[in-house]
Write a structure and sequence with these properties.
Blueprint lengths: L3 H7 L20 H4 L16 H7 L6 H23 L8 E7 L10 E2 L5 E8 L5 E10 L8 E7 L7 E5 L8 E11 L12 E6 L7 E2 L16 H12 L2 E8 L16 E2 L7 E9 L2 H6 L5 H18 L11 H9 L9 H11 L26
Antiparallel strand pairs: 1-12, 2-9, 3-8, 3-10, 4-7, 4-12, 5-6, 5-8, 10-11
Helix pairs in contact: 4-7, 7-8, 7-9
Length: about 375
């Protein structure tokens, strides 16, 4: 439902730490740890969260910067995962379309494409869908000769340079080969990496290939054969994909190219019965990573409590707890779990209540990715 690396990065300085005034205590030197975009300070979530106490009980092999960065990253992931489970977002973290080939079959060995120094490939246009991610995890190639380190470029009309380049190597001439990508090609309508909307292009420069591409006849306007064997299912997949992305083969004449940089997209020419020796494995998934980053201030209190709980648990189990004066394991357990005699709530219970109280505005998220039960929040509020 969300990409951990993206969410951790955007929430790195959502809350910050405060150094101790005692110069004999190890000092935080990582500036990002001291910055707080929300105004919340981790130390304020519990009296024991001083840098002196933390440095006295953390593993000896860690520096204070390394330990705190690790606990913040873990706390962000835990807090957001708990919210997603509570709001039933995990149940709606569906894959709308599993990875499927754009089309089946291979081209005839004799049906080759003459190279004219063009850029050839496909144009992708995404539907304005928020919270939806389109992924290409496989590229299929068919050329008359093997290719060694053939560059497959991914362009976006808002960026001069390619946003991604894949080096593709095949082993056999004429035969079609699937290549599984170690780093998938990731498309979103709204992204921090490029402007919203626009067009994507994936392809290669014919000057880079050895031999010729083998063409697969396919009508990109009408889609797969509906009356052929398996055609009904293929057409269903095709139509589902069209709800989120339009893919059309195209080429750009050599005279209109700008080296290996993005060309003027108005010079592209559609070629709706060609594939230029390419095929792709495409999936469509729900992904609210960017949405969570937009709503990060709603999560600040929750993340602060989660990080505090995690560090107190580390202190509780530390063999060096005796270095904190007048503090015992029993006292930390009481602060975490609460006091049965006084009925005072512990920090862990307050964390759970914060999870329940967190609410989001899901109105912008595309409907296939929403929780089925709307009681989980059409309002947004800060705790």
């Amino acid at each position: 439902m969300f990409q951990n690396s993206i969410v951790q990065q955007c929430m790195t300085s959502l809350l910050g730490w405060r150094n101790d005034s005692n110069p004999d205590v190890p000092q935080i030197t990582d500036a990002t740890l001291l910055q707080s975009d929300s105004g919340f300070i981790y130390n304020d979530f519990h009296p024991l969260l001083t840098i002196e106490n933390i440095s006295n009980t953390m593993p000896k092999t860690d520096t204070i910067d390394a330990y705190l960065n690790k606990k913040v990253d873990q706390g962000v992931s835990k807090a957001i995962t708990k919210v997603c489970i509570d709001k039933k977002l995990n149940e709606s973290s569906k894959t709308i379309l599993n990875s499927s080939r754009l089309f089946d079959g291979i081209g005839r060995f004799t049906d080759t494409i003459t190279s004219n120094g063009q850029f050839v490939g496909v144009e992708l246009e995404l539907k304005n869908s928020y919270g939806v991610r389109t992924i290409i995890d496989k590229i299929g190639l068919q050329f008359t000769q093997p290719q060694t380190n053939l560059n497959i470029y991914v362009f976006h009309t808002s960026q001069e340079d390619a946003i991604q380049t894949i080096s593709a190597t095949t082993t056999n001439g004429n035969s079609f080969e699937w290549l599984t990508l170690s780093t998938v090609i990731d498309f979103e309508y709204l992204s921090n990496e490029y402007d919203s909307g626009g067009l994507f292009y994936i392809g290669y420069f014919q000057a880079d290939i050895v031999g010729q591409a083998i063409k697969k006849d396919f009508n990109w306007l009408s889609g797969p054969c509906n009356t052929c064997s398996g055609g009904a299912n293929a057409m269903k997949i095709w139509n589902t994909r069209l709800d989120f992305i339009r893919i059309t083969p195209c080429y750009v004449e050599s005279g209109n190219l700008n080296g290996t940089q993005m060309f003027d997209y108005t010079n592209k020419v559609y070629s709706t019965t060609n594939n230029f020796g390419l095929n792709f494995g495409v999936s469509v998934q729900c992904d609210i990573s960017n949405y969570l980053c937009e709503q990060k201030f709603v999560l600040a209190d929750l993340i602060g409590k989660q990080v505090a709980v995690d560090i107190l648990n580390d202190m509780k189990h530390s063999v060096r707890l005796n270095r904190i004066a007048n503090v015992s394991e029993h006292m930390i357990i009481r602060d975490l779990e609460g006091d049965r005699e006084t009925h005072e709530e512990g920090l862990a219970m307050r964390l759970e209540k914060s999870i329940k109280a967190t609410s989001f505005d899901f109105s912008k998220i595309d409907s296939p990715c929403l929780p089925c039960n709307d009681k989980f929040g059409i309002k947004k509020r800060a705790i």
